[in-house]
Predict the structure.
Amino acid sequence: MKRSDWQKVYAPQGSALDIRVQHALASLGREPERKTDMRMKRVMAAVLACMAMAVGAAAGGLFAPEYDAVRLADTALAEAYGVTDEMQTYFSREVREEDGVTIVVYRGMEDMRHVLGSYTVTIRGGKAAASWSLDGQSTQGGLDARAWGAEQLEILLQMAADEQGFARGHRKALEILREGDGLELAVTYEDESGQTQTEQIRLPADGMTAAVSEEQALQIAGQALAQRFALTPAQQEKLEYNRDYAEYTCAVQDGRMVYELWFWLHQDEAAYHTAGDGLYRAVIDAQTGEVMDLMYDSALAGNG
């Protein structure tokens, strides 16, 4: 391109330049057009409309029927027996359907079930009715009562706020079990036709008294863990019993009184992890001394 041609294309002509300068100066006093404000208003209106639709959908049907049933059951449980959502930490919950009727069962923790019992809420046609397996038994006397309702659950929650309170509640439940006539358990099994059956059985109270001491259980656990996970003598020496759990190592599992013992191994304080470091768990039958379960967790995944 010649120089003269370049100037024609890119260099502003005299009059054109004057007009552009005048236009620029005049525009300095004007308010800028708020096109972006209009766009923002449209965006905000769309967002608000979506939010309104979402709220309406949630109110109308984003919740599954199972949720509605559980919500009704929780409400019925609180109204009939005073058992709140917070108290449900002492229960497991099961929901099932039978001939168009929804049944929600709240089962007390196994080693407390003899005093907590089980609550059953039956839902028909959107109406819920609650019952308790310990209905008719006295709940008077705080934790000395043989049936623990909302009053006792409130006491347990208050105790659990203390670091040692959780253990005291479990020990008290175990004392009542030993003083009573045994433990009633619901055993579920499949019959010859493949149908699920549930049968109530009672374990004698004398079976709930430990024949094996905790010290003996610790020795059994240490030997079993060393053998199972090939711990060296040096590792066995550094295997430390976790006394944070010592207050409630004795519990009931599957109708058997057991010791659940936890150990921690950290061999080198200067190292983050050495082979074999982690958590070890042993479950020992408190009647026979048999090893029921052994577990090792390196804790490298943060699961410990």
Summary: Confidence is low (pLDDT under 50) at residues 1-21, 55-60. The radius of gyration is 35 Å. The first strand starts at residue 91 and ends at 98.
